[in-house]
Amino acid sequence: MSSSAVLFERQGKVALITINRPEALNAINTQVWNELGHAFNDFAEDPNLLCSVLTGAGDRSFCAGADLKEKAVSKGESIIPEGGEKWGFAGIVQHYMNKPIIAAVNGFALGGGTEIALACDLIVASEKATFGLPEVKKGLIPGAGGLLRLPRQIPLKVAMEYILIGDSFSAVEAEHWGLVNRVVPHEQLLEEALALADKITENAPLSIRASKDIVYRGLDAALDHPNEAWAINQKYLQQVIGNEDSMEGIKAFIEKRKPEWQGR
User: Fold this and answer.
1) Computed from CA positions of residues 115, 118, 120, 122, in that sequence, does the dihedral angle turn out positive or negative?
2) Is the dihedral of CA 17, 18, 19, 25 positive or negative?
């Protein structure tokens, strides 16, 4: 899939997905929302793709959030494409898929841009990247998951400061609080993100998907009494143990060779 608003490129087992509106700081309009949602559908449904990297075109902005200059927005109209409600903002924030998504944040990721990054599983940030939820400064609130995800991903009081004051914060600050996996030189961003994706795709496809499902389904489940989290863990463990890939992984380890995954 390729279009003027979203670019989709297959690089081995990795889908490189690019928001392609650099002239608008990769802000989200109806077209981007629709095409990004379909791009992630394509990624989710392709058995040969095991991981995706999401980035923004150009070297200034990952995503500046919703495009407030769109005519529809200025008229108080919605930018949600027909059928796009099920995916959430930008076609991603409520679009769960059990394959890893890495955000390669190449510049500004403000408002909805931060919320998109929060919806990803890992974040690699350029040294030039900045994050923030400035909605309170405009009389708004972050409505695309920022208020739900940020306090779950960094300490509560730190999250509340960023949310209530609305100031932006640097990639280095984000890394300090564990929001970002690594900060890299700007020119090495995509290389580092794709290398991280490649490391993930070396592993067994079913194990990758089951691991992500257990983590997210178990986050808010009781660990001991009642043992909801353990029930989730056991369900996926039974699916993975004894499948062809698990047997191949053990055999390859014994034979000191690289495993050949079949995804079953």
Assistant:
1) positive
2) positive
Tokens of 43: 């990624």
Instruction: Kindly tell me the burial class for residue 24, based on how many C-beta atoms sit within 10 Å of its own C-beta (0-12, 13-18, 19 or more).
Output: middle
pLDDT tens digit sequence for 32-74: 999 999 999 999 999 999 999 999 999 999 999 888 776 555 5
Catalytic machinery residues:
115, 135
The answer to whether the beta carbons of residues 214 and 233 sit under 8 Å apart is yes
DSSP collapsed to 3 states, 201-256 = HCCCHHHHHHHHHHHHHHCCCCCCCCCHHHHHHHHHHHHHCCCHHHHHHHHHHHHC
pTM of the predicted model as reported, rounded to 2 decimal places: 0.87
Q: Is 193 exposed, middle or buried (0-12, 13-18, 19+ CB in 10 A)?
A: buried
Q: How many CB atoms lie within 10 A of CB 128?
A: 17
